[in-house]
Amino acid sequence: KNEVEQSPQNLTAQEGEFITINCSYSVGISALHWLQQHPGGGIVSLFMLSSGKKKHGRLIATINIQEKHSSLHITASHPRDSAVYICAANTGNQFYFGTGTSLTVIP
Amino acid sequence: DAGVTQSPTHLIKTRGQQVTLRCSPKSGHDTVSWYQQALGQGPQFIFQYYEEEERQRGNFPDRFSGHQFPNYSSELNVNALLLGDSALYLCASSLMTQGYEQYFGPGTRLTVT
């Protein structure tokens, strides 16, 4: 069993839709990261969370420490949001990554 | 302010050969972590360097080794390459006192034939 599980694996949405990606983890964490990876490989760090909720533009990330669960929400999705979104659990010693959620937003 | 840079961008090697990948951290960062990402998979932690020493290591064989230089840049070396070593190798930098936030480089795509 992977230390970090994401769902769904693949997601297709119409432009403007509200999107939710879920992440569950089984390890004790110092922080939970949401990353965005575009085709070609470059990774951008979107959020680092240790509690509560963070918002950046149309992106919102929440975490429930007791339930070991985090969600990434995208409001008013746009085709440029199409990418792979990866959840990563930071134990303080190392990172455990989910396999990613591939998002395609159709115009 | 340059972010994390990696070189080369792409690399093709033959089984049994050795390869060296390079990473320059974001300005002001002192810690470098290396990750391997196989096609269609999430990244896997290889190891982390701080103060020129390997501080943490993931589940990778000794064929994978590294180095950190006084200017905080780092190298990843892989010996006796296998076909299964073909992957995107990502470097991330951070500041040890704020180690939870990492900045990723664009990666080096290694193909072993």
Task: Compute the separation of the termini of chain A in Å.
Answer: 36 Å
Would you list the SSEs of chain A in sequence order as H and E? Answer: EEEEEEEEEEE
Question: Which oligomerization state do the chains in this entry correspond to?
Answer: heterodimer
Q: Classify the beta-strand content of chain B into a percent band.
A: over 45%
Q: What order do the SSEs of chain B take from the amino end to the carboxyl end, as H and E?
A: EEEEEEEEEEE
Which residue ranges of chain B are poorly predicted, with pLDDT under 50 across at least 5 consecutive positions?
Answer: none
Question: How does the helix and strand content of chain A classify structurally?
Answer: mainly beta
Q: Considering DSSP H and I runs of 4 or more, what fraction of the residues of chain A is helical?
A: under 10%
The total strand number of chain B stands at 11
Overview of this protein structure:
- The complex is a heterodimer of chains A (107) and B (113).
- In chain A, 0% of the residues lie in helices and 60% in strands.
- Chain A has no helices and eleven strands.
- Chain A has strands at residues 4-7, 10-14, 19-25, 31-37, 43-49, 52-56, 59-64, 69-74, 83-90, 95-97, 101-106.
- In chain A, strands 2, 4, 5, 9, 10 and 11 form a six-stranded mixed sheet that branches.
- The model of chain A has no long low-confidence stretch (mean pLDDT 92).
- Chain B has 113 residues and is mainly beta.
- Chain B is 0% helix and 50% strand.
- In chain B, the strands form two sheets. In chain B, strands 2, 4, 5, 6, 9, 10 and 11 form a seven-stranded mixed sheet that branches. In chain B, strands 1-3-8-7 form a four-stranded antiparallel sheet, with no helix packed on it.
- In chain B, a hairpin with a 5-residue loop joins β7 (64-68) and β8 (74-78).
- Chain B is globular.
- The model of chain B has no long low-confidence stretch (mean pLDDT 92).
- The A-B interface holds A 4, 30-31, 33, 35, 40-45, 48, 50, 86, 88, 90, 92-100 and B 33, 35, 37, 40-45, 48, 56, 58, 88, 90, 92, 99-107, 109.
